[in-house]
Amino acid sequence: MAKQPMLKFVNVPREMPTKREATERREDFNEIYAEYADAKAKEQASRCSQCGVPYCQSHCPLHNNIPDWLRLTAEGRLQEAYEVSQATNTFPEICGRICPQDRLCEGNCVIEQSDHGTVTIGSVEKYITDTAWEEGWVQPIKPAAERGESVGIIGAGPGGLAAADVLRRAGVQVTVYDRYDRSGGLLTYGIPGFKLEKDVVMRRNEQLEQGGVRFVLNCNVGGTGPSDLSFDDIRAQHDAVIIATGVYKSRDLGGPGAGAEGIVKALDYLTASNRAANFGDSVPEFESGALNAEGKRIVVIGGGDTAMDCVRTAIRQGATSVKCLYRRDRANMPGSQREVQNAEEEGVQFEWLTAPVGFKGDPVNAVVVQRMRLGLPDATGRQSPEVIEGSDYDEPADLVIKALGFEPEELPNLWGQPELAVTRWGTVKAEFTTGRTDMDGVYAIGDIVRGASLVVWAIRDGRDCAEAILADIAAKGAVAAE
């Protein structure tokens, strides 16, 4: 009888890939986890219980066939494991690195609920696809037949690229327009290299380009620059258009002194760092120190994953101190607990239950901070922060980074499209399952529909929208043939 390759969670403990020591990793922007060795990947995959109702799969936005590719990995059938993984996820090696597995698949693992420690799903997923690249199993897209239909995609982030992949595999002609000089969106310029090394993103961009996806970069839709195009121009060139711009407008802070020099937006800060550290670009704002933490006292305001990216970047840039202000406590912060732990190991100080009420100096030299306490739950069930009167204090700061989240830009105004319907939050109105808007042939996906969300949800939206476009094209063709 063949030996049972799975259900080894009782005897085999959970073991993550080796994590570099904090003193070492704070000196560079390389990823902090090593790769699994083949034997270790098989061992950790074999811990899966192969449960009848896989909660890991149902809590993954992409509904990845996780138990199947874990079993294939445990059996040493890695190429098959990659093919199963790639069937539902356009970028599994990216999700394996940056998804908050503790809140999604791993957080709902059955053996985790029984105190055996979750299967290391994200790390195995990363290992499978990294191996696939090394072995040459990842090939450029080769459609079985070319089609005459054309789709324009505005935004080269994960949602837009996922849609481009599905459409191109079906033979559709795809053009992606993006405001930046490199595609990838926040994968390229928003997420630091210590979470997602940039060659991982660039090789996917190259795969899409080799497969026939056309990229029009440095193109700000609705702008007046030499490479810019209007929305009407783009719409006229294609049978369908997908709006996948994401949300880039930073939420702002008020209070006395809020306009002082030295108070900067998180995305500006992270983009400058990624350009300088990961691509070697010349960035005047970084070189002048305006967007560089070296030798400075840094205060980051916010408690999400973007705030964690900022504090950990500041540590690597050589800040003299890095503090994070968050108005709730640790248990109520929206960012990944794994990221908080990594930040603390690297020397970040968290000031829980604190909120800024003003700033001193111009350039800024201090944040005026109020201490808070948690009161009664709000409509979402989270306890609302309340001010403790008379608790104000000054937190010294040479650079303040605002990481309070993102809001949608006013696309109907920016693009001169008043008929593009938006919600009261400014997001584009579209069907969640298809991306269809009220405008004929216009679709919208990702954060511009959902509001600021996860990369994995953008990938899901992109794939779903591409399938809907293929169905709509087929339906129009059938009508035309009658």
TrEMBL record:
InterPro entries with a match to the protein in the record: DPD_II (IPR028261), FAD/NAD-bd_sf (IPR036188), FAD/NAD-binding_dom (IPR023753), GltD-like (IPR006006), Helical_ferredxn (IPR009051)
Keyword match Metal-binding: yes
Domain of life: Bacteria
Domain spans labelled FAD/NAD(P)-binding: 151-462
Matching Pfam families: Fer4_20, Pyr_redox_2
Sequence ranges assigned to domain Dihydroprymidine dehydrogenase in this UniProt record: 25-136
Keywords (A to Z) from UniProt: 4Fe-4S, Iron, Iron-sulfur, Metal-binding, Oxidoreductase
Protein name as annotated: NAD(P)-dependent oxidoreductase
